[in-house]
Amino acid sequence: MGDRIKKWIAVLLAGSILAMIQLVPVGGAVFVRENIENKEILGEKETSLQQTLHARAWVLMDADSGRILAEKDADTAYPMASTTKILTCILALEQGNPDDWVEVSEKAASMPDVQLNMRAGERYRLSDLLYSLMLESHNDSAVAVAEHIGGSVEEFAEKMNRKAREIGCKNVCFVTPNGLDVADADGNEHSASASDMARIMRYCAFQSPCHETFLKITRTASRTIQDESGKRSFYLANHNALLSQCAEVLSGKTGFTGKAGYCYVAALKKEGKAFTVALLGCGWPPHKTYKWADMRKLDQYAFDTYDWYDIFDREKTFPEVEVRRGVKGTTALTLNLPSEKQMFLMLLRADEKPDIRYEYPTELEAPVHEGQEVGQASYYINDEQVAAYPIYAAETVEKIDYGWCLRRCVTYFEREFQSMWQTWGV
């Protein structure tokens, strides 16, 4: 009997000492950073494009991800002429009623060519003015629309800049709804970068809640509109020549001013691939056709060069992670993704490979819970993050503390008492 009591006391003391040791503070967890790194490779075809296109700034963008696939001087702001009107149109669709009657002001009627030749005081359906805006690029229609939606050209320009920033544009200064060469009160010229114009077209053609109506308008070959009285009618013809020449051209808008030169912004879609293109400063008179030549080269390059690749790393395994103060010494790590979700498709060139960066701890502090986020797997293409997946603890590991030690002691005592009673025949 005395030996058993001594044994119980020894176990209790040992448990208490162990608990006190486990409560001593330790340093923070150390993280492992693994990189499956692939440096950026400039494709030979892209190098050729950089040398042969006429545009002083251009962008080819993946419309699905928003990733810039190829570019020249993508982030410098330049005048962009009537390509401005794609933003004017989408704002009017989102914030206006197509059935509204729009009264023409003296200011709208005084706009220079190209114009519908509306007269002050006349009224037109907002929807009809959007066809005038996008098919014939009428400057007076743009101002009438802006005044109707914003109250004034200046207020509408504020809306344009705000919307552009909301969708991720960084180098824009919208001063007019029609793209004429003007500056604001601070001397900032009406301008935008090629990357921002490609981004705006991506929003208009694929992301806006009104993108289907936008596409319907910009894909219309011709339309006849009238004023409210029905006494004046106008025939409108679409000036986007590529609509009838290239089936993959989903939408587009031309533009020209003395400062901007010939410009073109377009959306393309074919074989499950979608792109947007922005061409700024693509020649001056007499080189009106340079924009079409550049567009065809980028069109062919995009669909010939880029294809869908699954870049998800299914072979990745993680080492067991030490759990300090844990009732179990280690735990496994997992991405916790079912097999059907272990896929990540990207439009890539054949020579582009992902840079996958894994960050996870070498040790954790108990308690650890199953499903607890402890790290991250990040996917990069040419140093741009395109996806991220959390890394989780795969199982629960309780913490060794006084309570755990005492529970162990109690469990031990219960077993000992049962053994003792059986020995004594109680």
TrEMBL record:
Give the metabolic or biological pathway.
Answer: Cell wall biogenesis; peptidoglycan biosynthesis
The processes (GO biological process) annotated in the record are: cell wall organization; peptidoglycan biosynthetic process; proteolysis; regulation of cell shape
Where is substrate annotated to bind? K253
- SUPFAM superfamilies from the xrefs? beta-lactamase/transpeptidase-like, Penicillin-binding protein associated domain
What is catalysed by this protein? Preferential cleavage: (Ac)2-L-Lys-D-Ala-|-D-Ala. Also transpeptidation of peptidyl-alanyl moieties that are N-acyl substituents of D-alanine
Peptidase S11 D-Ala-D-Ala carboxypeptidase A C-terminal domain sequence ranges:
306-399
Q: Which UniProt keywords apply?
A: Carboxypeptidase, Cell shape, Cell wall biogenesis/degradation, Hydrolase, Peptidoglycan synthesis, Protease, Signal
Catalytic residues as annotated in Swiss-Prot or TrEMBL: S82 (acyl-ester intermediate), K85 (proton acceptor), S137
State if Transmembrane helix is listed as a keyword: no
InterPro entries assigned to the protein according to its UniProt record, in alphabetical order: Beta-lactam/transpept-like, Peniciliin-bd_prot_C_sf, Peptidase_S11, Peptidase_S11_C, Peptidase_S11_C_sf, Peptidase_S11_N
EC number(s) in its UniProt entry?
3.4.16.4
Which PANTHER family does its entry note? D-ALANYL-D-ALANINE CARBOXYPEPTIDASE, D-ALANYL-D-ALANINE CARBOXYPEPTIDASE DACB
For this chain, the family text in UniProt reads: Belongs to the peptidase S11 family.
Any idea what job this protein has?
Removes C-terminal D-alanyl residues from sugar-peptide cell wall precursors.
Protein name, please? serine-type D-Ala-D-Ala carboxypeptidase
